[in-house]
Amino acid sequence: MILRTFNGGYDRNFCYVLINDESEEKETIIIDPFEDSRITELIEKDKLKVLYIINTHSHHDHVSGNKSLKEKTKAKIVMNEHSSLEFDKKVRDAEELLINGFKIKFIYTPGHIPDGMCVLVNDLLLFTGDLLFVGKVGGTGPRFKGSDPKLEWESLQKLMKLNENILVYPGHDYGKKPSSSIKNEKKTNPFLLCKTYEEFIDLKNNWHVYKKENLEN
Ligand SMILES: [Zn+2]
Fold it and tell me: Rounded to the nearest whole angstrom, what is the distance from the C-alpha of residue 59 to the centroid of ligand 1?
């Protein structure tokens, strides 16, 4: 399997293209596409057979490339069952999708938004959308409709139970590095070092102070 990462879109968004390079068909899945000619050029140049477009959640910057990509490739759009957008395949928590070269497991992770999900590919690569970033977590509060910090905390705890060797690929390039691992996030992400929800919400509410004291020198 080959993973190609594109950085761009609305705000340092990541779009991920996963290609089964062991088959002549080159079955491909694309996660959180935005409009970008580099993505379509790759599909054409390498003659990729795009089967599924998967969105980690329905925020505009994570779905903006859906329409044109679907027209071009006839791929099916996959979203969590709670999404109110138009899409082709509904998935639930713990559901799996098996296609040649890929085992894709969907983990329902609300908090940032009610239709948020993480996507675990081949038990090794975890695409976390806007739930978990490298060193940070997704936004909650009045700016994010339907967000709920308690649910976000619970969703994060769910991820912390996964195998530590799993690699983390977030929805935005907001951290010191573009990607990480469960192990590394557990050790270094200040939000995951919180022992209780109360500590977590306190850090969220005082993030600007924490940042000033710890990250900006
Ligand atoms: Zn979002």
Answer: 5
